[in-house]
Design goal:
Elements lengths: L1 E7 L5 H10 L3 E4 L6 H9 L7 E5 L5 H16 L5 E6 L2 H11 L11 H18 L2 E4 L5 H12 L9 E8 L10 E4 L20 H8 L2 H23 L4 E8 L5 H13 L5 E6 L5
């Protein structure tokens, strides 16, 4: 039987992951008291049980049980019960924004501020994050991106790495994205803006892509950038980082940055990490 414990920060997507697992055929139980996890696991392993995949959701609402869960999980492992933990994470600013948009109350906020509740929750859940087999940072994920990562873990046969990369094109005239980890300027490349038949197209169009990538410097830059990022990622992982935003900018964010972002994404799909590309200013 495959036992998955789904936990993480409130507002990071735990409920969505539970629904995805249910669609995959998992028997899902949300917010089960921690003390009952070994008993439920034992029942599902008994002869005659038809449950071969079980997902249990644990969140901060089970605050009293969380203090006991470390010992309970250790005991389960000692008794031969195998389990996996998937931890849903997101940046504080993103979590606050989600709570404001949904107008829901954080379980620890009561009458207090959401940011203080999030800080307290991080401290309470830190030990579970350290035990996690998979960490998904949903700060920059849409639901379809999250589903892709969950499918990769539970439906795919490939080895999963707890690292998610966003490659983001932008225009310097609109400002550098505030969540960037790495920023690269590709304004040194030939600019399709000055070619009449290319001006109204974007880097998503083949004509613009070929025009930019036919430049010797474009291919050289893309290859050198790929090698540098491939070197950096294992070192970031060693330091505990689980997501990376690589921002690539040109003047308006429509031609050169989009092209290089697409070319780099294509190259980086060779690596065993979650990856997506976004074009922030392509329609401006």
């Amino acid at each position: 039987m495959r036992l998955v414990i789904v936990t993480g920060m409130s507002g990071a997507g735990r409920s969505s992951v539970m629904r995805m697992l249910e669609d995959m055929g998992f028997f899902c139980v949300d917010n089960l008291p921690v003390r009952l996890i070994p008993k439920l696991t034992k029942i599902t392993l008994e002869e005659g049980s038809t449950i071969d995949r079980l997902a249990i959701g644990i969140d901060i609402r089970n605050l009293q049980g969380l203090s006991e869960s470390g010992g309970i999980l250790d005991e389960m492992k000692a008794n031969g019960y195998r389990y996996e933990i998937i931890f849903l994470e997101a940046e504080d600013a993103v979590l606050i924004k989600r709570y404001k948009e949904t107008r829901r109350n954080h379980p620890l906020a009561l009458q207090g501020r959401v940011d203080k509740a999030i800080e307290a929750e991080r401290q309470e859940l830190a030990f579970l994050k350290k035990r996690a087999d998979y960490i998904l940072d949903t700060s920059h994920m849409l639901i379809r991106d999250l589903k892709k990562e969950v499918d990769k873990i539970f439906l795919g046969n490939e080895e999963y790495e707890n690292f998610f990369i966003t490659i983001l094109s932008f225009g310097f005239k609109y400002g550098i994205p505030s969540d960037s980890d790495l920023v690269f300027d590709v304004r040194f490349l030939p600019n399709p803006f000055y070619i009449p038949e290319l001006k109204k197209l974007t880097g998503n169009d083949r004509e613009v892509y070929d025009y930019v990538m036919d430049s010797e410097n474009a291919a050289l830059f893309k290859n050198k950038l790929y090698e540098m990022i491939r070197f950096l990622i294992p070192n970031y992982i060693t330091e505990g980082k689980n997501q990376l935003v690589i921002s690539i900018g040109c003047t308006g964010g429509k031609h050169r940055s989009v092209t290089i972002a697409n070319a780099l994404t294509k190259e980086m799909k060779k690596l065993p990490y979650g990856i997506k590309v976004e074009h922030r200013d392509i329609n401006k």
